[in-house]
TrEMBL record:
EC number of the protein: 1.2.4.4
Keywords, alphabetical: Metal-binding, Mitochondrion, Oxidoreductase, Potassium, Thiamine pyrophosphate, Transit peptide
Cellular component aspect of the GO annotation: mitochondrial matrix
Native species: Poecilia formosa (Amazon molly)
Function: Together with BCKDHB forms the heterotetrameric E1 subunit of the mitochondrial branched-chain alpha-ketoacid dehydrogenase (BCKD) complex. The BCKD complex catalyzes the multi-step oxidative decarboxylation of alpha-ketoacids derived from the branched-chain amino-acids valine, leucine and isoleucine producing CO2 and acyl-CoA which is subsequently utilized to produce energy. The E1 subunit catalyzes the first step with the decarboxylation of the alpha-ketoacid forming an enzyme-product intermediate.
Main EC class the enzyme belongs to: oxidoreductase
Name of the protein in its database record: 2-oxoisovalerate dehydrogenase subunit alpha
GO biological process: branched-chain amino acid catabolic process
Keyword Oxidoreductase: yes
Subcellular location: Mitochondrion matrix
Primary localization class, coarse: mitochondrion
Catalytic activity, reaction form: N(6)-[(R)-lipoyl]-L-lysyl-[protein] + 3-methyl-2-oxobutanoate + H(+) = N(6)-[(R)-S(8)-2-methylpropanoyldihydrolipoyl]-L-lysyl-[protein] + CO2
Description of how the protein assembles with itself and partners: Heterotetramer of 2 alpha/BCKDHA and 2 beta chains/BCKDHB that forms the branched-chain alpha-keto acid decarboxylase (E1) component of the BCKD complex. The branched-chain alpha-ketoacid dehydrogenase is a large complex composed of three major building blocks E1, E2 and E3. It is organized around E2, a 24-meric cubic core composed of DBT, to which are associated 6 to 12 copies of E1, and approximately 6 copies of the dehydrogenase E3, a DLD dimer. Interacts with PPM1K.
Molecular functions per Gene Ontology: branched-chain 2-oxo acid dehydrogenase activity; metal ion binding
Length: 447
């Protein structure tokens, strides 16, 4: 038996070698290999060993003759870039992105529509109509400002609290609802928890729950786009909590060394569930990490949609033109609970939440800006709120009435042909459903 298995291993290796040789002959692969070789050759420098300075390949610096540790606060107090003050007044006119009235109204309508959708879906969960939900309250400016600054075919890797980015790209309310209700129209066929959206047509990669996995994935995608010379960028969203994961380090370092057209967009909203930022990290936030990786970085006021827009637009332009990653840390505040499984009154005060809700909210700031220009009145506000609420309610009612996906779909789309293990599970599921059919309302599912 041992001889047989080692023979089959050898023949497996031979087949592998043949495949590799064939692959090397493919012109496409040859081109890619030469891309890598050229990149290495370009970096070769003449080696001058006569210089009286450190020759270590891993550092470029002078020698010193006194012992001194670098202070952790060497990068501290990174300023927060903003365009508008809290009353929506432009601070420095040269930073005003001068967006048209139509564009600004679209920003506002998307931000408020997201807020309305959140309220209705949050309530749906409280009433037991959906299993779970996560609101985006207070972070609307980070979503819309960044989404508007991208090209529509740039690839988005989100964490889970970026529904506004997808909304800005045109994902319809019906599909948001279909995903949360896991009904037959859901693009994910009802297999994911609510808020785990994804849309291939809108270049929005499906959300996955394990934190920070999107970071190295985004780097790989950006590297691929660079190699294909696509003139496209990748944006990768994550929270300041996710930035503590090892995957964030791997992603930052790979993106810098591989020189990827990528924007790391950190939503620093003050909390990772119940962990406040002062327990999450010791340095000056996430932006301070950029220089350590050799990355251009900026901190912006995430509640100022224009500041987010300007920073993302410039980062996007340079990321593609110069093939290098950028790190944007958008300072904001998570006004809602972490999710419907959380009660944030256990770890933060009502006064703190009220401050952000009433005095420093991205939606009210933009509204002040529009009102000052005579672009938005009380009447506009009333009729828009009424109309948008009606649109959301109608989508919600349609989603609730819709059938659930055929249970057969639980077993599809992973393997091209069903493997025996899965066939066995399928058989046992349907036997179970048959036996206890009074507990399974199959008439609510598509046949
Ligand atoms: C690897 C991993 N660890 C823990 C969790 C549980 N978890 C889900 S969300 C979350 C907090 C993340 O906070 P942050 O990245 O700041 O994003 P925010 O929720 O504030 O938007 C945690 C710990 C998880 N999903 N995955």
């Amino acid at each position: 038996m041992a001889a047989v298995s080692s023979m089959s291993r050898i023949s497996g290796l031979c087949r592998h070698a043949v495949r590799q040789t064939a692959a090397l002959k493919s012109p496409r692969l040859l081109q890619r290999r030469s891309f890598r070789v050229t990149a290495v050759q370009q970096q070769q420098q003449p080696f001058d060993s006569s210089l009286e300075k450190p020759q270590f390949p891993g550092a470029s610096a002078e020698f010193v003759d006194h012992l001194e540790f670098i202070q952790p606060n060497v990068i501290a107090g990174i300023p927060v870039y903003r365009v508008m003050d809290r009353q929506g007044k432009i601070i420095n006119p040269s930073e005003d992105p001068q967006l048209s009235k139509e564009t600004v109204l679209n920003f506002y309508q998307k931000m408020t529509l997201l807020n309305t959708m959140d309220r209705i879906l949050y309530e749906s969960q409280r009433q037991g109509r959906i299993s779970f939900y996560m609101t985006n309250y207070g972070e609307e400016g980070t979503h819309i400002g960044s989404a508007a600054a991208l090209e529509s075919n740039d690839l988005v890797f989100g964490q889970y609290r970026e529904a506004g980015v997808l909304m800005y790209r045109g994902f319809p309310l019906d599909l948001f609802m279909a995903q949360c209700y896991a009904n037959a129209d859901d693009l994910g066929k009802g297999r994911q928890m609510p808020v785990h959206y994804g849309c291939k047509d809108l270049h929005f990669v499906t959300i996955s729950s394990p934190l920070a996995t999107q970071i190295p994935q985004a780097v790989g995608a950006a590297y691929a786009l660079k190699r294909e010379n696509m003139n496209r960028a990748v944006i990768c969203y994550f929270g300041e909590g996710a930035a503590s994961e090892g995957d964030a380090h791997a992603g930052f370092n790979f993106s810098a060394t591989l020189e990827c057209p990528l924007i790391f967009f950190c939503r620093n909203n003050g909390y990772a569930i119940s962990t406040p930022t002062n327990e999450q990290y010791r340095g000056d936030g996430i932006a301070a990490r950029g220089p350590g990786y050799g990355m251009l970085s900026i901190r912006v006021d995430g509640n100022d949609v224009f500041a987010v827009y300007n920073a993302t637009k410039e980062a996007r332009r340079r990321a593609v033109a110069e093939n290098q990653p950028f790190l944007i840390e958008a300072m904001t505040y998570r006004i809602g609970h972490h999710s419907t499984s959380d009660d944030s009154s256990a770890y933060r005060s009502v006064d703190e939440v009220n401050y952000w809700d009433k005095q420093d909210h991205p939606i009210s700031r933009l509204r002040h800006y529009m009102t000052a220009r005579g672009w938005w009145s009380e009447d506009d506000e009333r009729s828009w709120r009424k109309q948008s609420r009606k649109t959301v309610m109608e989508a919600f009612e349609r989603a609730e009435r819709r059938l659930k996906p055929n249970p057969e779909l639980l077993f599809t789309d992973v393997y091209q042909e069903m493997v025996p293990r899965l066939a066995k599970q399928r058989e046992s599921l349907f036997r179970h459903i048959q036996q206890y059919k009074e507990h399974y309302p199959l008439d609510l599912y598509e046949k």
